[in-house]
UniProtKB/TrEMBL annotation:
SUPFAM superfamilies, A to Z: S-adenosylmethionine decarboxylase (SSF56276)
Residues forming the catalytic site: S72 (schiff-base intermediate with substrate), H77 (proton acceptor), C92 (proton donor)
Reaction(s) this enzyme catalyzes, per UniProt: S-adenosyl-L-methionine + H(+) = S-adenosyl 3-(methylsulfanyl)propylamine + CO2
Any GO BP annotation: spermidine biosynthetic process
Cofactor info, note text: Binds 1 pyruvoyl group covalently per subunit.
Database matches in Gene3D superfamilies: 3.30.160.750, S-adenosylmethionine decarboxylase domain (3.30.360.110)
GO molecular function, one term: adenosylmethionine decarboxylase activity
Record-marked site positions (Cleavage (non-hydrolytic)): E71, S72
Species per Swiss-Prot/TrEMBL record: Infirmifilum lucidum
Name of the protein described by the UniProt record: S-adenosylmethionine decarboxylase proenzyme
Length: 148
């Protein structure tokens, strides 16, 4: 999937991948540490900025969690007993690529089968002003905008 950087230049504010992973490694799906590391690495691979994260391991099995990124989120719910994971990878801005993040997750969970629905979010917004801007760039633009 790497290289499917379709961008959002044609409209919309971001890309949302709705992912079904099957025949995954049940040990990976039941490990909160594996899931946490995989989602955080996925955020980095997609060129997103991690803001916060939280994960929970259910008894007797299963993990749910999310990584909140400045550009949106990555979330997961696992069913180790079925080798199944339900995943969202949603990134905004042309600097991100959710497909690169998804590659990390597929590899770490050892998914043998996967289906992906890609939704371009915010297509109906008429006058979209731009994408998320890093704080250091915002300061530069604010100075330029206020200079007479």
């Amino acid at each position: 999937m790497t290289g499917k950087n379709r961008g959002v230049r044609g409209g919309g504010v971001g890309r949302h991948l709705i992912v079904e992973m099957f025949e995954c490694d049940p040990i990976a799906l039941d490990s909160i540490e594996t899931i946490r590391t995989a989602l955080l690495d996925s955020a980095v691979a997609s060129n997103s900025t991690v803001v916060s994260f939280d994960f929970y391991r259910f008894k007797p099995h299963g993990v749910s969690g999310y990584v909140l990124v400045a550009e949106s989120h990555i979330s997961i719910h696992t069913w180790p007993e079925y080798g199944y994971a339900a995943i969202d990878v949603f990134t905004c801005g042309e600097h991100t690529d959710p497909w690169k993040g998804l590659d990390v997750l597929k590899d770490r969970l050892k998914a043998k089968k996967m289906t992906v629905l890609e939704i371009v979010r915010g297509v109906g917004i008429e006058n979209y002003e731009g994408y998320w801007i890093p704080p250091e760039k915002r300061r530069e633009e604010a100075v330029v905008a206020t200079t007479p």
